[in-house]
Amino acid sequence: MVATGTVESATSSTPAEPPAPRRRWPWRTGVAAAGGLALYLAFPGHDLSGLAVLGPAALALAVRGERARGGAWLGLVLGLVFLVPLLSWTGIYVGAFPWLALAVFEALYFALLGGALAATSRLPAWPLWAAALWVGAEALRGRQPLGGFPWGRLGFSQADGPFTALAAYGGVPLVSFAVALTGTLLAAGLVGLHRATRRPGTAERRAGRRGAALALVGALAVPLVGVLAELPLAGSSLTAGGPDRTVAVIQGNVPRAGLDFNAQRRAVLDNHANQTLELAAAVERGEAAQPDLVIWPENSSDIDPYSNADAARVITRAAVAIDAPILVGAVVQLPGEYVANTAIVWDPVTGPGDTYVKRHPVPLAEYVPARPFFRFFSPLVDRVTDFVHGTEVGILDVGGARVGDVICFEVAYDGLVSDVVDAGAGMLVVQTNNATFGYTDESAQQLAMSRLRAVEYGRTVVVAATSGISAVVAPDGSLVQRSELFTADTFVEEIAQRDSSTVAERLGAAPEWVLSALGVGAVLAVAFPALARRRAERGR
Predict the structure, then answer these.
(1) CA-CA distance, 169 to 474, in Å (whole number)?
(2) Whole-model pTM?
(3) What CATH superfamily is the domain 244-505?
(4) Per residue in 151-170, pLDDT tens?
(5) What gap in Å lies between CA 179 and CA 261, rounded to an integer?
(6) Which active-site residues does the annotation give?
(7) How confident is the model at residue 203 (pLDDT cuts 50, 70, 90)?
């Protein structure tokens, strides 16, 4: 409420700006590029999360007074400067073309955003509509095409900081909105200061100063609300809020990084089995707690244990030694040439039981839509075996824990995570394999998403990775345990199985839809009168 009132005061009391210029001054492109750089530096790898607000601030300033076409260019510049380095991990082993193609395609959403921001930049309360448009653009980018690709959302830069706690009240969309609103209010403050120094009349200068002051106060108020929102979450621990289960996380490591990590599939399986056997020996010596369940990562058994008796024996031996069920990440061969990325509950007595099949395989990495078309650009697509899409929510009973399982990139998709919580998950598990991305920032970026999910749903999140980063994240988003890249590691923690609900869980996708609708409404408020004027002019 504070921010909304500030926006109205900061914009409605100042005179209208002169007509939109017909050309883009070089400084606008430079400001947009600087905003993209600030966004990149805000994400894990550089971890300067406070810089995230400068992205929306820079784009708002760059497009202010521009036509939609000019705004689209400026949005594209920001998107490219931001996404090309952010997504560089996608090309680490497959070459520059797939990486750059993805970055350019995703940057087009920022072009659309820039055009919309320019079109609405003259409306009263424009910082509010601009922040809502950021959420709308992220909502679209995370859904279309082929299920979308939500990497690089503003909220995912805020695993630490004053905005983090807002995830518990409106999910990642509310965090993105708060970051964007802070930035656009900051931009409104700078616009007001500019007016105060450039307008000749005393009244205009006073209005500019007043508008600048109110906007800057709003820019400080939004993160303050985030800090206050954190107070009820303070002190969230692994063991509070429900019955405890002792959970072991195994990171067995891989023989080598890169696309050929699974060329030694048996070695990967043996690494995880041997790490589990070492934990069993430590339990027997009294050096570690007896786990109720053990979590192995995605691709911990790329040998199908249903059809390969040797792989099944290796897993059973580990489960019997640790005397607990293991959640195994396996690649399962299906009829024809299809495979399934599957989580299998492997009991030490009864063997394989309940399963979860990954519902959102990654396009062009785990399946290839329109294969002949993409083969024209790169023959590497023929190295991709098509994974099927699972249809069941990833809720599994493992050793007395009701585990909500998502696999790898699925943690980035709001709906896939909310589904398992709605189904009764007492804790969240992210099984992932990041070996194909080497020593890049991808693992840290994915871990940041898991930390936001912990806050969003008030659940402990366990991340099990083949080669890192594995982690145990408390419900307040803090890291209790974390591994390093390409090392073997084991964690054992008591984790409460929670059944409480956060505001974000109860609201579901409503905050995102409402904020997106506000942004779309602002665009329509500009578009309809413009169309009416054009029709009137044609009728003369």
Answers:
(1) 17
(2) 0.91
(3) Carbon-nitrogen hydrolase (3.60.110.10)
(4) 999 999 999 999 999 999 99
(5) 38
(6) 298, 358, 408
(7) confident
